[in-house]
Write the structure tokens for this entry.
Amino acid sequence: MRVLISLAGLAGLTFATHSIFRVNATTAGFGYLLLVLVVASIWGFVEAFITSIAATLVFNFFFFAPVGTFNIADSHNWVALFSFLGTSLIASRLSTKAKMKALDAIERQKDIERLYAFSRAILLIDNSEPFAMQLIRKLADIFQLSAASLYDRRTGEIYRAGSSDLDPIDAQLRETALDSIPDSGSQTNYLLTPVRLGTEPIASLAVQGSRVSDSVLQGIANLVAIGLERARAQDLAQQIEAARQSEQLRTTLIDAMAHEFKTPLTSIKAATTGLLANPQQLKEDQIELLNIADEDAEHLKELIDDTVAMARLDATQIEINPEISDLLAIINEAVHSLRTELEGRHVGIFHDGPIGMSAFDRRLLRLAIKQLIDNAAKYSPAGTPLEIRVQQDANAIVMDVTDHGKGIPEREQERIFERFYRSPSIRQQIPGSGLGLSIAHSILKAHHGNLTVTSQPGRTTFRLTLPMEYKRETLERGSNTGY
């Protein structure tokens, strides 16, 4: 069809130059040469070559004497004719090469743009699906592949994308990842290449349905290798961080509670040793010593319960077992359990009007209150009083725990509820794990409440808020609920 169109154009040009405008041979020759160049630039060398031969014959027939024959009387016309033929062929060849180079440059630019788009897509992959699955899907979309398959040696999985099916080459994918030898399937029109990280093959890739040069395919393989390694590094970093936090949590819990266990155990040991060393003591003294041992044993039990509760708070869900309770009674229990830590301090408990019963998890809320009181005692000068104030309205119960320490810098107030966070200014001065306030905050969130702080030099107040609607919801649902 292209050749016919070219010959039709030649016929039209000949009719115009010979019959209508009656131009001379030189003008006609330039017209034929221009036609050959146009054909070469539009279609290619084959069409231009045929047009050149036809133009030479027509040029001879209509414009060289004797006109109307293919004979040439003047020898100079032979030179002109062959010069025309050579010029048209060379010009068409050069025009075709220029066209091919331009098309190749455009294709290379498109390949670079696709590789750049693919590299950006790799950086934007999230955690909603397996990394390799998203990667091969983006590869198929960006390069407009009918099918693409990726075999990951680390997981042993094959990930596919595209409308076509490359299942028959699963074995070749695995072999290529092991042997690191590229392959191409001419019958199924696919390209198969290993994906290397350095010299080590870590995967293999098969693509089908789009013209992909070897250099572009190698560029794709390199990006896939970088992407897979990046995903592996992120997974490893997450695992290391999770293991580090788990180990740090375990260590800090053990270290923090070991000191707490020693105090009641020492009292119990002293009481029992006194009973055994003096069997003739009065009964009243024995009862007093047994009471001490019993109270400290109960304290030890509470510590163990708190440890278990703290460990449970590391889970993604906190199970709340609410029951109708008296908040003031819980506060008194928390203060009593910290009598050793609070020795020599006055703890004032104030409330404006009566405080009604409310629904909350007694054990967890007592643990939260203990953390707040212990924190206030730890970070304020010995002998200074602590204040606990409770208020209630129709919407919530509010408890403030106030100490008179040096205060919390404003830049640190937003971070003190983070797990393991401790102020650099007191990290080496006051022992602690950085877990207490985080635990209290989690417990309040599980109760649909909140824990906030306001601080200035000489006065720091932690405010615990329990919403009353939580009580109503609990009474409607029953006594057990999970958060």
User: Anything to note?
Assistant: The chain has four domains: 2-105, 121-239, 242-312, 319-482. The CA atoms of residues 17 and 27 lie 8 Å apart. Residues 214-277 form the longest helix (64 residues).
